[in-house]
């Protein structure tokens, strides 16, 4: 019975956008109210489909949602996990969490709703076939069908075509899946297990929203087109301005764009369904006549006509009358829109009364098994009485105010046990082990959600004999002296969270470099009588076994404890491949194991995001030889290379703009630039001559990949001789690597590089290859994806004066944190390039 309630609660809640975690309660102006009133008469919907965050056409979404007032959704098949990160070093699922929140911020601006499938962004793909194979086509097709059946769009629009013009295998696959789902969603034989919750749905038509990306123009004047550049006087902005604000939320991708004003056409090519001449929803009744209830149209008109922006509460009686009339329509044809419009009316009633309710705490972390102080604030800022205001939390309900009226604030403080399962706050798509190309979600009704459904309190109240309920997320509220009032999500944690550093241990370095393991733990509860032991589960060639380290452990609330442990002394006889540190705690004759690490992601533009993962360390037992001691590192957009260099035994000094211009560069055995450094650091252009002088006097400059595009142009000279940066990449991490010069020092000193060094790589080989290079440069490797010509631009190098310069698109920033031995050995050789005499 309990799971049944959960299913239907989830099914219903997809019909309305709920408040996001970590988001201040929305402010609704009189202009906003009028826009929402006008929307009550519009019964049309459009679903936009593409592959990634930032693929969506925000101008079109803003036009559809705010001008046409259609219910508008964006289905991004992936969360953008495999992209690059311009603001930090998060990769994979961590980056996907950031980009999910950026999409939600964008939707709050343009007015559309956000959905996802279970597809994982595994990086750049060059074919539809590869994307569908890795994603498991039927799995993701079922997700697209599921969302179509729930959202019931009249029109589906894809951002891309299902062919090579899409420019990315994920792009073309998103179109191919949408086109197939357009028909499959209407077929009861397709994914029949969904039909216990939804019904088959046939959209009227499906379009491809053609584009002009400069180098690729797919638009033509014989296509259907719309001017979406209009001005909305209630918002005070044109749709081009709204679109720019929305798109600029994709900060991790560096997608800030200028506001656009004036006429702006979007073009559409029909890929299925009925053709059109004048309107995207041509042939669809988009008012209440579509449900056989045309008599509701004049009722909505009356509410709008009676609306006074200086006294919004005056139309609440009319809204309640309309709500009753709508809910008397119970036909299957009306059911979907009755539910949707009832939710819209409920939000309007609250906005017209100025109703405000929040549930906040003075701490962000809630410990399973503990209690939490919760403050509930409720105020009705309108003149109509709101009666019987009560709160439902877990299995308890209590009255906040018998009657709330005339701007009187009611506050209730309670203390209640917190959530009993901290994993319920884990992002739902990360709760289970994922497949290679997709997430595992065992609760089908969660599929499509951008984030976990709200887990908090429910406030209920009565207005003129009509009972309303509202879900209140439990939030942490505090005041920052600079930023002011801030809301952040509250999340549950286990009593003890464990961590360890580094993520990779190099167990066979030559010369020897002591490897230290830092095991840390934070106790979120006071455990005075508890006794603890640090234990290590080791996985190796001979299976698994445990090793323990007796230490004195204290469990003081909110106190972080760290223990530095010599890897060599503890594991001198073993060669484990994986180590899983955990804390074993004995408390009142009970022994509990704590092995969950927690990742916190904190940026000003998104709410705090967290997730749990098994605490583990990868051990590399292959020999890695190094030469040199001191590395100068010029950070780019963010990567984990400096930490890997320290593990290799190097001393790493960060070269910021001031240091780059003033320190003696000749001290460094090598200088390495971080990923995209030349895209984001103007100082590199200013210090070009200094860097080239460093190289010519015997230095070694290693430049990691940069992009050359509208989004990330390279504004500086990079090497001593000319070369270009292309968009060529090798996306198959197993692609064969051909060595072009077996005698190169890069392949021979101090490590002998061979085919085995290219085994076990992740996601891709190399990106943004060099092209058109001067004859002074020497390429070292040739590689290519299936069906393509070989390319030798993944690494080029040259002697310049007494030193060396290297440009490489090889993805060290992915391979080193993943513990790929060959990547460490190859980087060690690049660093040693100017150390061996005779070359």
UniProtKB/TrEMBL annotation:
Domain of life: Bacteria
Entry's Gene Ontology molecular function annotations: hydrolase activity, acting on carbon-nitrogen (but not peptide) bonds, in linear amides
Signal sequence coordinates: 1-24
Keyword Signal attached: yes
Alphabetical list of Pfam families matching this protein: PIG-L
Keyword Iron: no
Record keywords: Signal
Family matches, as Gene3D superfamilies: LmbE-like
Transmembrane segments: none
PANTHER family xrefs: N-ACETYLGLUCOSAMINYL-PHOSPHATIDYLINOSITOL DE-N-ACETYLASE (PTHR12993:SF11), N-ACETYLGLUCOSAMINYL-PHOSPHATIDYLINOSITOL DE-N-ACETYLASE-RELATED (PTHR12993)
Protein name (record): Hydrolase
Organism from which the protein derives: Flavihumibacter petaseus NBRC 106054
